[in-house]
Structures are given as C-alpha cells and as structure tokens.
C-alpha cells in the first residue's frame, strides 16, 4: 500500500541557491512555517547519514519524527527518509535548471509496512484526505523554499 504525490515549483534562483536552502536542516524551522522545531542528531555538513528530529503540527497535532538523508547528489537531488507509525516515508527533491532559475520537484511517498486489515480499511477511507492535506503542506513548503532561495 503506497501513496505518492509530486509537486513542482519554479524558483527564480540558481540550483546552488535552492540547494543551500533545502540542505540547511538546522535553519529549516526558520524557513518553513510548518516546522516547529529541529533537533540535529548528527554533526557535520549535509550528506548521506545526516540525522535530525523534526517537529511539525499537522491536523492540530504536534508530532516529532526522526529523519535522515539516504541519498544526495548536490545540487541535483536528495532523498530523505523517515519511519513512523508503521509507515516508511520518502521525500525526494530534484533540482533542474530552467529559464534562468530552477524547477524544484518534490516527490513524497508513504508506504505502510506490513499492512493489517484495519490499516488497509483506514487507508481506503482516509488515504485520499491525508494525501490532500499532505499535498497542501508540501505546496506551502515549496513556496517558502522559493521565497528563501530568491532572497539569497
């Protein structure tokens, strides 16, 4: 059981400037209004293995999720993973230079690990609503990433 969505935002900034924003995990709470707090769990520059805890408020509930960088190809792409509540979450950012700026694509996927009958029913009933809310939050994130990159 997997749910995936992809959004793309054109940003009037170079891929290097966009990369600087998306790879600044410690500063992401200052860039993205949806993030309440970041707690770094690893040291050093952004790269494969970088780990942190991210706290967000979704649907009126505050939740903290441990995340890590599973792949990076600066300044072209990066993949971030999280495991939470029986689901495997993957977020992939892809940067493509176009028209003097950058197309930033974000693909978010959620896969339920070992789904039970109850989780299958729940996903059938509420999966579309959850992904719709997630798409709205991700679109806001992309808009805020664009604003930050364009201000650099």
Describe the protein:
This protein is an alpha+beta fold and 152 residues long. The protein has helices spanning 15-22, 28-31, 117-151, and strands at residues 2-11, 35-40, 51-58, 61-73, 77-84, 87-98, 101-112. A seven-stranded antiparallel β-sheet has the order 1-7-6-5-4-3-2. The longest helix is centred in the last third of the chain and has 35 residues, at 117-151.
**Structural classification:** alpha+beta
Number of strands: 7
> Residue-averaged pLDDT, rounded?
90
Strand content: over 45%
Number of helices: 3
- Describe the biggest sheet? 7 strands, antiparallel
Strands of the largest sheet, in order across it?
Answer: 1-7-6-5-4-3-2
Low-confidence stretches: none
Which of globular, elongated, flat, extended, rod-shaped describes the shape? globular
Topology at a glance:
Elements: E1 2-11, H1 15-22, H2 28-31, E2 35-40, E3 51-58, E4 61-73, E5 77-84, E6 87-98, E7 101-112, H3 117-151
Antiparallel strand pairs: 1-7, 2-3, 3-4, 4-5, 5-6, 6-7
Helix pairs in contact: 1-3
Quickly list its features:
152 residues, alpha+beta
Concise summary:
By secondary structure, the protein is α+β, with helices and mostly antiparallel strands.
